[in-house]
TrEMBL record:
Signal peptide: none
Keywords noted in UniProt: Glycosidase, Glycosyltransferase, Hydrolase, Transferase
Organism: Mucilaginibacter ginsenosidivorax
Protein name: Glycosidase
Glycosyltransferase is among the record's keywords: yes
Recorded family membership: Belongs to the glycosyl hydrolase 130 family.
Domain of life, per lineage: Bacteria
InterPro entries (UniProt xref): Glyco_hydro_beta-prop_sf, Mannoside_phosphorylase
Phylogenetic placement of the source organism: Bacteria, Pseudomonadati, Bacteroidota, Sphingobacteriia, Sphingobacteriales
SUPFAM superfamilies listed in its UniProt record: Arabinanase/levansucrase/invertase
Amino acid sequence: MNDITKRFPENPLLLPKDLRPSAEGLQIISLLNPGVFRFNKKIWLLVRVAEGVAQKEGVIFFPALNATGNTEIIEVPLNDPDLIATDARVISYKGLDYLTTVSHLRLLCSDDGIHFSEPQTNAALFGKGYLERFGIEDCRVTQIDDIYYLTYTAVSDSGVGVGLKSTKDWQHFESGGMILPPHNKDCAIFEEKVNDKYYCLHRPSSKEIGGNYIWLAESSDTRQWGNHQCLIKTRPGLWDSARVGAGAAPIRTEQGWLEIYHGANAEDQYCLGAFLMDLDAPSEVIGRTKDPIMVPTEAYELSGFFGYVVFTNGHVVDGDRLTIYYGAADEFVCGAHFSIQEILTLLS
Ligand code: MAN
């Protein structure tokens, strides 16, 4: 294993207790997987806030947004034979899947990239409508000219898909609806057009034939996506044998588009790796790290809401220095630095 990560000594940067729940009766279970961007000379995190309900013995409660956008609490006795609650993240009840938490997105900003606080001027983003009934998650933020594009996971009983919003000022948002239908997540739009087309990475999944692979798609307007191509597959026997998914927007380097991605094995242990795409033809993958570049090693990565997880979908780039912000153990927000050149030397 080749963990080349320089973690912030200040980690974890954000803990669930650092923010206030969005409504009475809810508690913040996790702060995780922030989208990251620069705006008004500050570094901003669009943090996923996962909220749940205080549990009582013998009963399981789980939240869902109702038609008016308010959180409704569903209650099931723990000994109900129709309940399967073996994964901290998902519940199956009467053959349908629910999440144990519902997520919304909150904006925090910082001058130094280490200490973040929530300005009173920016409203949180909540799931809206029946396709976001179980919340919105893991938002990637891509800036093209003066427009920020938000691609996030929209979760509901109809499935998990990719929603799009755009904004110029972080006050007013235009909704692009669901751009990639279920099952799909981990969508990151490139920060530049290539050959006059927008590109994105995304992760459709199939339970039967195929798997959890990273795909590429093109668009002329960021809303209608086509010419889908499968780029990166899971690798049997390696750390990314069960699923792979894109992180934030690829980074332009002289050698190609560098993408930091997450991979998980059958034990649901999440590490980070990287791959490189041709600058003019991103469908050509020209390198990939064999070993992970980041492995959960710290206490805050090994145990939490869902342990042994490092997951990133946001970063800032400063010359050779890549600063990623990441979710640790599906519970905390942390930061780490990498050298882009060093990552490039590990590609084969
Ligand atoms: C998986 C995990 C969860 C997430 C759901 C829905 O179970 O990534 O954290 O809430 O998918 O996206």
